[in-house]
Amino acid sequence: HCFMDGRDVSPTSGVHLVEALQAEIDKLGYGKIASVCGRYYAMDRDNNWDRVEKAYDMLTIGNGVHAENAADALHASYEAGVTDEFVLPTNVVENGKPVALVGEGDSVIFFNFRPDRAREITRAFSQDPFVVPKGTAFERKTGFLHPVYVCYTVYDAEFRNVDIAFPKQTLENTLGEYLAKLGKKQLRIAETEKYAHVTFFFNGGVEQPNENEVRVLINSPKVATYDLKPEMSAYEVADRAVEELKTGEYDAMILNFANCDMVGHTGVIPAAVKAVHAVDECVKKVVDQILAMGGSVLLTADHGNADRMLDTDGSPFTAHTTNPVPVVLISEKYKNVTLRKDGILADLAPTLLEVMGLPVPAEMTGKSLIEK
C-alpha cells in the first residue's frame, strides 16, 4: 500500500518509484502493490478526518478508485492534473476485485519514521475505542480489526496495541529541559501545522511539557490547500505571541511561522509571495515587542522551501531545499557581534544560552555562533 509524496520531492516522481518497486517485486516473485494514495488523504496531520476516512476505507473495504496496476493509476492521475500528493485513494484490482485489503487480525508495518503525519491513520487502525483528540472520529465500517500493528518509530507515546520497530533515543538536557531545570519559564507557540515542531520535536520526541513550559496552539485554517489562504494563521500567532510577551512572565519563547514552508509546498508562486509578505509583517510585530522589552531574537529556519519554486525544467518545485538558511541575531546588546558562517542547527541552542547569559550543558555538542 503506497502513500505517495509529491511534496518533499518532485510532484510526479512517485511513478518512477512505484515502477522500480514493481520491478523488484517481479524479480523476487512475490508481493503485490495493492493500492496508491496521496499523502493528502493518508497522512493528514490537521484533524481532517474526512480525508483519513477515505484512505482507511480504501485500505479496508476497497472503495477507492479502481486501476489495473499502480503505475497506470499514477499516469492517469497525472494526465488529469492530479500529482502525487493528491492522488485519489486507488485500489489495484484483479478481475474487478482489490488484490489485497487489510482485514481482521492482519499484520501492518508502517514504514514512516516521522511521527506527526503517521499518527492519524495509525490511530484509526490501532486504537479501540477510536476517539480523536480534536474533531470527530469517523465510523470504522469494518469495526476494530485487531491488527498486529508495527510503527517504525514512536508515533505517540499514548498509543496502545502497537509495537515499535525502532524505539526512540533518549536525549538529555535538550534546550527546553535545561531551561526548566534552571527555573526559567518558556513559551511555545505555533499554529497547528507546526505545533508539533515547537513542542514534541523541539523537546527531542517527548510529549510531556517541561515544568514552566506554556504551550499555545493556534488552529490552522481549514482549507483544501494553503495557497488558498497563504497568510494561514500567522497574524493570529503573532498577535497572541505579543499578548503573551506583554505579560513579562517568560524568559524564552520558541515560535514557528508555518507559511513559507506550507505554501511553498503547493508550488503556487503568487501564493508563496503572499506567504512571505505575511511572515515578514508578523515577524516585525513580534521582534518589535521583544526589542521594546530589552530582549533578543535569534531568527532562522531549519530548511528552505519558498526560496525555490521552480525546477530546472520550469515545472513547480515543491520540496524542501538544501540552500543555506539565514541566521540573524537581533539584539541591542549584541548588535555589534559577528556570527560564524559555518554553523549547524546544533549551534543554535548554545547561541541562545550565551545570549541569555547561561552556561552550556555538556550534552550540547554544538558551539555558539557568536565569534569571540
Structure description:
Keywords: Glycolysis, Isomerase, Manganese, Metal-binding. It catalyses: (2R)-2-phosphoglycerate = (2R)-3-phosphoglycerate. Its cofactor is Mn(2+). With 372 residues, this protein is an alpha/beta fold. It has 2 domains: 163 residues, BPG-independent phosphoglycerate mutase, domain B (2,3-Bisphosphoglycerate-independent phosphoglycerate mutase, substrate-binding domain); 181 residues, Alkaline Phosphatase, subunit A, CATH 3.40.720.10. The chain has 11 helices and 13 strands. Helix 1 links the parallel strand 1 and strand 2. The longest helix has 24 residues.
Set out the fold topology.
Elements lengths: L1 E3 L9 H15 L6 E4 H4 L6 H12 L4 E3 L2 H10 L10 E5 L2 E2 L8 E4 L8 H8 L21 E4 L10 E3 L10 H7 L4 E6 H10 L11 E6 L15 H12 L6 E5 L2 H6 L4 H24 L4 E3 L28 E3 L17 H8 L17
Helix pairs in contact: 1-4, 3-5, 8-10
Keywords: Glycolysis, Isomerase, Manganese, Metal-binding
Cofactor: Mn(2+)
Protein name: 2,3-bisphosphoglycerate-independent phosphoglycerate mutase
Features:
single chain; alpha/beta; 2,3-Bisphosphoglycerate-independent phosphoglycerate mutase, substrate-binding domain; Alkaline Phosphatase, subunit A; 2 domains; Metalloenzyme
